[in-house]
Here is the input.
Amino acid sequence: MSAHPLEIPGHLTLTTGEGGLPKIRIESAFSRAEIYLHGAHVSHFQKHGEPPLLFMSAASEFAAGKPIRGGVPVIFPWFGPRDGYPAHGFARTTEWELVTTALLPNEAFQLVLHLPNSTGYQVEFVMTVGDQLSMELGVTNTSEQPFTFENCLHTYFHVRSISDISITGLSNVGYHDRIADVVTTEGHEPIRFEGEMDRVYFNTSATTEIVDPGLGRKIRIAKSGSQSTVVWNPWIAKSIRMPDFGDEEYIRMVCVESGNVADDQVTLSPGDRAVLAVVLSSESL
Ligand code: TA6
Here is the structure.
């Protein structure tokens, strides 16, 4: 079979992934990654010699119309449930189009995907794979009216044990606790987990870090164009209720999500563009 014109032989190849879905495999000098056209969904990122950075459920579905449970779901144009519509919007269950691929001077590989069939706005996803994983979700208002939306890169991180990790960078930041349905403020100490957690931190552009003594690493989540950080772990009861998630998989994952949700939603004037950018990196403790 002749190579796809956008392939970069030996480094960026188009293949068939789980569920027969089209998948792009990227092998850089520093790392390997995978992204499905389905949802422009980064399903894997791993630096050579390190454990995977992202979590992927062994029970995830890989099927048209179904979200992938793990990696980086692209949430657009709304976050959370919406009566009569799929939770977290339709971008994550749409097949995106691969537009360009490139090898950058720093030996990282970059690819651009577009969300097809959009009316009144254009959406592209730019993924750069090197020593770090960077992702940019760009939205342009091509209509004559203001366009309001929510967005989020709903990243699932792989950890050794949820009970042993801590998250720094959100001290004194206000958040909506979506389980207790109260608005409160984070304390001074790093965040630790003793049960289900579902918090939307607002008005924060802060860089956060996941400190994982079990894997002996620290993951840094740097962001721009984002005022919300969501921290989520389903814990035991919710894990059991999720058919595409193992009952004990909550132990090995945490979501630290970067976006603009609820009161931080984005309103673009005609012709304006907003870019949500996240750079994921890791280092040994
Ligand atoms: O980001 C946290 C959250 O909104 C949780 O409330 C939980 O629903 C999670 O997203 C996963 O949502 P999903 O629709 O992918 O099952």
In short: The chain has a mean pLDDT of 98. The domain at 12-161+236-284 is CATH 2.70.98.10 (Beta-galactosidase; Chain A, domain 5). The longest strand covers residues 273-284.
